[in-house]
Amino acid sequence: MSTPISKTSWRTSWDADRALQSAAEPRHQDQIREAFRSLSASAKLMDWSTFGPVGWRFNPSDIELLDYYLRAKKYGGGPICEGIFGDFDLYRYDPQNIPQDKVHRHCNGRMYIFTPIYKLHKNGSKKGKRNTPNGHWKMNSSPIPVIENNDGQTIGTRSSLAFFDGHKRKTRWLMYEFRLVDPPTQADENEGMMDHCVLAVVYRSKEHRVLDSYWK
């Protein structure tokens, strides 16, 4: 759990809104969007690059990443916790060449990035295009459903991917890709997108916890 985040006023407000919904009451998309628009606006007021005392760790659960941060970004549209999350097209870069000024690298070596996914083939393709300038990301297994504890609802999926270089050699770069189960919008279809916003958690396996070594 990310305890410091749960203590913020805007998180408390959102938790209170959710508490008002009974277990049997359906979640209406317009209510969800409105709640997260407020969240997005409030998040802009905080300086996330300096948030938290020494020793603080950003370590959200899968449910929190999906039902809180990703949904806020996807439907709110504005910046979410700048200084913690990056927001750009991940697939324009090989993982080792992601610019330092685009995303914060946390002490556990992970980078949290909001990114679109384009279809492999614009018309009718169910596969995402995950090529980079000098390699590609490949699924390790089928997506795993993420189920919310409160009502047993599947809110999204988590997929595991590995990065292969231009010679098709598997590297030490790995990724978790989080997607909501919401169907694609008409705008996504028109732009040839599989999803206009997913959350990628990129990291390097078995790396040393020396930050300078990442950029070598």
Give an overview of the whole structure.
Pfam families: NAM (PF02365). This is NAC domain-containing protein. This protein is α+β, with helices and mostly antiparallel strands. The protein is built from five helices and nine strands; from the N terminus they run ααααββββββββαβ. The chain has helices at about 5, 10-20, 30-45, 60-75, 185-190, and strands spanning about 85, 110-120, 130, 130, 135-140, 145, 155-165, 170-180, 195-205. Strands 1, 2, 3, 4, 5, 6, 7, 8 and 9 form a nine-stranded mixed beta sheet that branches. Strand 7 and strand 8 form a beta hairpin. Helix 2 packs antiparallel against helix 3 (about 30-45) and helix 3 (about 30-45) packs across helix 4. The longest helix has 15 residues, at about 30-45. It is globular, with a radius of gyration of 18 Å. The two termini are about 30 Å apart.
